[in-house]
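note to self: dont lose this again. the chain is below, predicted strucutre after it. 302 aa total, dont forget to put it in the shared folder this time
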Amino acid sequence: MILKDFKQLRQLVESVDKRTVAVVAAHDAHTLEAVLKTKDEGILDHILIGKKDEIIKIGNELGYDVSPDVIIDSDTDEDAVAKGLDLIKTGGADFLQKGILQTSTLLKGVVNKENGIKARDTLSNVALLDIPAYHKVVGLTDGGMVMYPTLEQKKDIIDNAVEVYKALGYDNPKVAVLCAVETLNPKMPETVDAAELKKMNQEGIIKGCVVEGPISFDLAVDPEAAKIKGYESPVAGDADIIIMPDISAGNLTSKALTVLGGAMMAGIVMGAKCPIALNSRSAAFEEKYYSLLACAYMMSAK
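---
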């Protein structure tokens, strides 16, 4: 299967069993708007954790009558995180949605050795991007969590992104390990890592995908550029997943694509026992809505 755009994702979600999202610090208009819309559309059930009176008030302002039965009252962010994690561990919810709290507060709870839900050594952010100029949704990672990933962390980042794409229905996603150039240069450490990751894939250490690298951005997404440069690879011009060399490259590229390229984004944190729909506190309703859709569809593969 190839996911062409978020419109197709919306259609796919209608065909799977309904899941339950636990919303941590749910007293936020954009977050509630997205969550309540998925409920209204019959896509998701929800449990709202946060300041009860504010949640009901915001819901009313949005035109929804929020039942107190789906609210767990919580006055602090730390308490809301703990209650959300308990719901995941006890099966009361299928995945988490970040509301209006610091990302670090949520992730501190997720990685807690005693009470957390960390499943992999590395947590990473996968930004699913619906870009008008590209023929399918592309996963860009990591532009939000791991600042300067080591080779082993890059392997984990690939594994996390491949898990997303497998859950979305891809048999063998195409992974492009991006660099400024497409040739190995010992003076550019990211090209050395890219070549090693490709080798790890060929040796079966990185499974379930096809890894190419080093490869430049234009060669990864533009078949005509690959043809002109004579770059032959099944990934060239058709990348599903793009691995960034560091957080700056990932963050700048994703923002350029959304702000100037008209892309819509869904943000997912992987590496825990469940996906986490995670966006900036200032993210628009649409971004949070599509993040929920992506997590809901992913959970259908569990």
